[in-house]
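Quick one, tokens below. Sequence please?
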């Protein structure tokens, strides 16, 4: 299972880098979201993907009984998903406003604030 997860993470990272190298801002945004998902999957896989019971401590015991799942990576991934959704909402609003003002999604044509290079 870990091998399949590692392959999926590799494919997600490769696809995200490919999309982020494009000149289209929306492709860059989709690459950023794919990279976020790859990072979440990496954090989740770091908690050992073993079948186990929830990390609950029975009444009167000091530790959980038997094999339990690691709750820390799951909590980190849940937090990262919420932060990633906020980032997605912000960048979508930014992309919409950039397209509304500049009428393009090409990053080379979005150099509106930069001075033009003088050619000799």
């Amino acid at each position: 299972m870990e091998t399949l997860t590692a392959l999926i993470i590799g494919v997600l990272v490769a696809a995200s880098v490919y999309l982020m190298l494009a000149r289209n801002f929306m492709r860059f945004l989709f690459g950023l979201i794919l990279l976020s998902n790859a990072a979440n999957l990496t954090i989740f896989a770091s908690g050992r993907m073993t079948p186990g019971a929830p990390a609950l401590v029975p009444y009167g015991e000091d530790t959980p009984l038997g094999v339990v799942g690691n709750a820390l990576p799951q909590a980190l991934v849940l937090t990262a998903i919420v932060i990633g959704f906020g980032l997605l909402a912000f960048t979508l609003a930014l992309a919409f406003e950039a397209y509304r003002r500049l009428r393009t999604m090409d990053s080379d044509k979005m150099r509106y604030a930069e001075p033009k290079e003088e050619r000799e």
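The chain has one domain: 2-50+69-109. The two ends are 60 Å apart (CA to CA).
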